[in-house]
Amino acid sequence: MVGVSGGVDSSVAALLLKRQGRNVAGLFMKNWEDDGRLGECDADRDRLDALRVCAALDLPFHARNFSGEYWDQVFTHFLAEYRAGRTPNPDVLCNREIKFRTFLDHARELGADKIATGHYARVDCLDGRYRLLRGRDENKDQSYFLYTLGQQQLAATEFPVGELPKPQVRELAREAGLATHDKKDSTGICFIGERDFREFLSQYIPAQAGEIRTPQGAVLGTHQGTMYYTLGQRQGLGIGGRRDADGQPWYVVGKDVEQRHLYVAQGNSNHWLDSRSLRASDASWTAGAPPADGLRCSAKTRYRQPDQACRLEFRGDGLMVYFDAPQRAVTPGQSIVFYTGEECLGGAVIAATDAPYGGLAQG
């Protein structure tokens, strides 16, 4: 059962499996109910594109509405994290709870023994253990968002486009006459799409204005709500061109949700965003068990970041990560994902860092 999203990647995943002579069907997941308050939703267009692809490939087509599960298991967590001043990554939770749990369950009910998606990643089995591997296309690799998959999910999953570069995926779709061959890639948070983020979030969390301050305590202006800002952000602060500043850009370096203070510092090289260690929680390991304490590996604290050398140290139900080099704008609520070579070991949610406003005790 291929999760057909109406995009080119899942379309080619279905195409490749069909060409292998596999018994293939497609299932379209609707994960969000839109009431129209904030503009048109793309779900209906995506469903039609997915149906067209299945028709062109002569595949059975199924559709399921998982919006209730998505609200309960993904969106409520998303809102709670923003209320707490963190910046969550809903794509990671969606993969864990919806695409590789709810979808997998429904696929099995429909008679499928495996699922496939259009993710740029790979799975293999070595010495009886399934491994999650990076996609061959380094620019499209999506293993970062899949680190919560365990052995049961990996054993039941295929990623047919994981061996291919994106241009070849589009060419295969064009040659096969698939309507999605030139469809634009989706960007941003899935349920927000192209809509204004602030307007969307304000529908669910009341904005609370407060002061914009420097770390030294100087008040520079006001903001509409700390939830609208993330560490390292430089756009939309509205404090440029000050006579008492030197013209360098300002960056968000910290948030105090209770006091409604947004902290900013000036200059690309300011030290307020730098950290050498972090604490993480809610770890998930693709092997089903954590690696050895003290493991040296590489990590990403955000998607597309180059690999960063680090060391892991387990403490209670959490872990500490120590980096060889300072890290910039590591953001609580986001995921840190670990690798050795091409294998994704797993990851965890960033809880705090040793940056000045990162939340770790200084000593």
TrEMBL record:
The organism's place on the tree of life at top rank: Bacteria
This enzyme's EC code(s): 2.8.1.13
Annotated segments matching region Interaction with tRNA: 140-142, 302-303
Catalytic reactions of this protein: S-sulfanyl-L-cysteinyl-[protein] + uridine(34) in tRNA + AH2 + ATP = 2-thiouridine(34) in tRNA + L-cysteinyl-[protein] + A + AMP + diphosphate + H(+)
GO molecular function per UniProt: tRNA-uridine 2-sulfurtransferase activity
Binding site for ATP: G3, V4, S5, G6, G7, V8, D9, S10, M29, G118
Cellular compartments annotated: Cytoplasm
tRNA-specific 2-thiouridylase MnmA-like C-terminal domain: residues covered: 275-350
NCBIfam families: PRK00143.1 (NF001138), trmU (TIGR00420)
HAMAP family recorded: tRNA_thiouridyl_MnmA
Protein name per Swiss-Prot or TrEMBL: tRNA-specific 2-thiouridylase MnmA
